[in-house]
Every structure is written in structure tokens, then in C-alpha cells.
């Protein structure tokens, strides 16, 4: 059936919808004015009146931004024989004096707008039937378009959902992430609303919307409807692969109605937890992979990095610490005279055998706060119980016990800092062998140094491949999680972007640091640029997150058909995930720019021409993607001679603010642009025989929404020629 006409002059309900919009805006403004009038927020006394007035002002501030667009859709439903129309928006609103209410997109009813289901059974009340779904394009309090997505009276599915989607996708890119609340597709909606309290792994190709869906899921998790699984925004964390993306992503969360969420990188979070914020984090394995031509050395570095991130390392660390702490406990005891008010002093004695039994119990309990804090609590609890201390005297007894207990703990847990202990373990064949989990060959691999030719910073540093082992030491000794004042607690919910780049060991540690079932991982196995520290399959992640579901987004929405087909051709050479279907959105042909390999200016004039062509096609946010950071710096300077001024983004400190930029593929990953130009798109730059290089080429070629240019001095890469 043809799509219902969406032009204002032809849709039969346009005037009715415009009037409803006008009345809803008026109702919202009346409510805001009521809340802002402190004289009408009166309580029984002055203090109550002030509290009521402050709350009302907060409500007004939350609702005010949504007056310009109260809703974006509607549902006509039949419940218990009665029909009614519900309007869906980004913020719920109840008109206490009229029918102009709005349900929030993240509510149970709001979900019905996105799904294909035609009926539902609410938690309370009678079952209902969907009679019509309708998209309403509203901007600045003005109705622009009405599109029916489903209409029971006119044949059911109208095809309108695809029409609205294509209209949105044809829009230009911005310097922020797309707001997809209005156009969530059924499969995206289902992934976003996967059961609360269940770990979720969302596998999606470039442009499938997985990162944005993860953010919307976090918003959904903060809704009161989640009950015991509801997440507090300030107790949530989002981990992004680099600071460029972290800054880029942090802007969208307040727009979704949640603030104070920690948005950071795994390295920044880890060094903060270790108390080593000034520690310089390197990725020497990546440097080797990007620069070294020795395949044997590259393979060795890859295998060692994979082994460092193996989940077995958690028990290797645990066994090492068990041996170390038991050795530290040898010959130790606690003997202290304790006074309890109204009693004679009592000598409290803990011999070595009792302390060893307590340590064994602490290891078995595996407390979130770590073994040192767990041992302190165990001894304190036993002391209070043994002395039968009245509740009012507990503080005084613990104060007397504090000094000898601190001295004892210092002896047992001495010199166990995460960096030194991790490196002590990784440098000792005997320590690595103690658990019996590693083979002799694996132990020898961990003792080798394939990165010896890669320089290290002069100041204190740690490599990203070492950090999970260091975090494991921290987790067992000092604890892992979210610091609330001086208290360590689990995060309410954690979202991981580029989840294919997190090692199984890091997943195990994040599982400890977060409430059970409250991790959302977003990734694409086809885009594993850092596979040396990531899982080989999602099954390896599921082994660390019990009960985790893998949900696959089967469509990619970012690019035109021409760009999507090119990306699929590259990914087909190593694809380990499900086949991806693109949206059938036609666009410009992929543009190819080549010149003889010995051209005097190389590919510089070709890149400059590609930029001009993209700009002539109307694109403003344009990226020139290079293989390495040094290439981006070099090209940015050289292109000025060809009247092309591109802002270089070569470190994580740079921020993407739109316009013409030039950046390496590792920083472009996760970003999207109206147009993208792949520099040096040839087999000399992206080695055809190496899977890792083909992955990089795929990422480079999948950044563009509408227009893609491929540039090479010499022949283009065989996969894209």
C-alpha cells in the first residue's frame, strides 16, 4: 500500500493535529507558569513552602525545553472497548485540567510506538490493541508533517516508518551523535529494552546505531519503572575508547535527560582507581602493529597481549597473592589488652593459626573492598564477638584495636602496590606457574619482550596490555568499584562502547565492579582494530558475564547503499558476525581519485580535489582519514599549499567540533561524517594479506553518511578498486 501522504495540504488530519499541538503547548506553558509561581506553592509552614517551591522550579526547568516539541508521535489504542489517542514525546507530561497529556518514550506504553506488536498486556489493567501509529514532525512548536506508520482501518502497515527513517538519514551530520528517539527501529527498540538486570552484548555493524542505543538504554535504566534495577545516573559509567569520543559522546547524555554520568576511557578510569592519575598510558603493541614490518615479531606481540588479557590471569593473580599473603602471615600474631567500660582489661589474642583461617575465609568470600579491608573487618568482627561488647562500646574497642591491627595488616600486605606486584608476577616464571593454569609455553611467552624496540616514555608509565593485570591486583587487595566518599560500592550500570576491544580479564573485573546483570556492551567483531586485547568471540565475554544475551542489530543505517556495499565487500574477507543489511538509501557513487605513483605532488592534489568535490555536493562535516597519526599531521600541513585547510585531530586531547578535519583511522573510529575521504587507499598502506589491515580499511571506508572518496597515488587497494 502506498505511504500515507505526509504533506500538510493533503493529510486529512493535519489541521486536527495542528490544533492538538497548539493546545498541548498552551497546557505545558500553563503548568510551567503554575510551578514557577512561588505564591501558589504553599505548605503548612515556611520550610515546607520553600521545599515545595524548589521542587516546583525543578519540575518547570525539566519540562521547559520540551515545549518547542511536546511530542513526535501518537498511538490510537483500544482498551476494554474504548478508543483513545496517546501522544508520545521525549518527556512525560500530565495535563491535570485537560486531555493534552504526553507519555514518555522510555515508558512501557511509549515502547509500543516503536515495536511491530499490535497488542499488549500491561502490568495493570486490561489488554489493549494498537489501531494506529503516527509520526508527527514538530519543530519550534510548529507541525511540519504527519505520517501514518500503521493504520488498522487502511490496510495496516503503510510503509511510513521506512519513509520517516530515510528522511532522517538524508539529513547532514553534526558534531554530535544522532538523536534517534523519534526513529528507533523495532530491532533497536528491542535491544534497548532488553530485560533489566540481564547483561546485554549488542553486536552491530558500523552505522547500526549501537552506541546511541546503548545511551538510550542507560536512560531507560534510570526510569522508575525499572524498580529494583533502576540505575542512579551519578552511579553509572560509560567507557569510550578514547578521549575524543568521550568528549563527543558526553554531550548527548544531558539531552536524553540524564546528567552526572561518568563518561571516560578505560585507561582514565583504571589509573584513577589505582590512584595514579599522572601515569602515562602507552599502547606499544599498537605502535608495533602500525610500524613494524616483521610479521614474526608482530605475531608474537599479538599473542602476548592476548594472553595478558586472558580471563585465566584473574586466578593467576589470586593464586600469587594467596602465596604472598600467607608468606607474610608466617610468624605473625595479634596480642592486645582491651578495656571495656565497667570490666577488667582483657588480653585479646589471635595466634597465627587463627589468622590464617580468617585469611582463607576472606579469600573464599572475595569481598568487593578487597582482601586487606576484608581481613580487617573479619578480625574486628571476631574481636567484638569474642569480647561480647555492648553496642554502645564498639567504637571504643575498635579504636583500641586500630593501631595493632594496622601494624599487622601492614606486615602481611606490605609492598603490594598494583604496578609493582603485577610486574613482579609477570617477571617470575615460578609465580606464573603457581596456579597451574598456564602452560610452559605460555609462561615463556609472558616472559619474552617482543616490544623491546618500541621506546617507552621517560616518566612513569604503564602499557594498556598490563593494566588489566594491575587492576586485578587492585581488585583483590584494595577493591574495585565506585567510590562514594570513602565507601566502595558497585556501579549501578556500566555501558562499554567498542566492546570488541575489551579483554576477557577486563570484563571479569568490570563484572566485579558493577551490580550483577548491569553491563551493556556495544561492539562489532568486524571492527576489532585492537583485537590483540579483545575477545576472540562473544562467547568469551559471556563466560565472564553469566546470563549475558547477545543481540544482533541486522541493519546499518549510517551510509548510502553505495558506501554500505563497498564496506561489505571489505568485511566479507574476514566477517565473523552475522551478515548486515543496509537501508536502501541511494546516494552518490563512490568517488575514486588516482594518479601515477611517481606524480610530483603525490596524492595531495587528489585529496584537495576530493575535498572541493565534497563541498560542492553540499557537505560541511568532512573527514580526511589517514592510516597513522603522523600521516595526518604531515598532510594537514602539506594540504595548505593546495588551498585546503583541514583541522588535524591527532591526539586524544583534540575535540571534534565539525567542519573539515584530518585524523587517523584509530581516532575516526566511532565518529561519522557527511563525507569522508580515505587517503592512501592502496595495498601499500593497507596490506591486503593481513586481516588487521583489512579491518582498518573497513573502518576508514565506513565513516561517511552520504559521500565517500578514495584517493591513491598509484593503484587503489584491490578490495575497493
From TrEMBL:
Q: List positions binding ATP.
A: 204-211
> Entry's PANTHER family?
ATP-DEPENDENT DNA HELICASE SRS2 (PTHR11070:SF2), UVRD / RECB / PCRA DNA HELICASE FAMILY MEMBER (PTHR11070)
- PROSITE patterns named among the record's database cross-references: UVRD_HELICASE_ATP_BIND
Its name, as the record gives it, is ATP-binding domain-containing protein
Q: Which Pfam families match?
A: UvrD_C_2
- Residue ranges occupied by any UvrD-like helicase ATP-binding domain in the UniProt entry: 183-560
- Which branch of life, at top level? Bacteria
- InterPro entries in the record, alphabetically? DNA_helicase_UvrD/REP, P-loop_NTPase, UvrD-like_ATP-bd, UvrD-like_helicase_C
Species of provenance: Deinococcus aquaticus
**GO terms for MF:** ATP binding
Residues spanning the membrane: none
Keywords attached to this Swiss-Prot or TrEMBL record, sorted alphabetically, are:
ATP-binding, Helicase, Hydrolase, Nucleotide-binding
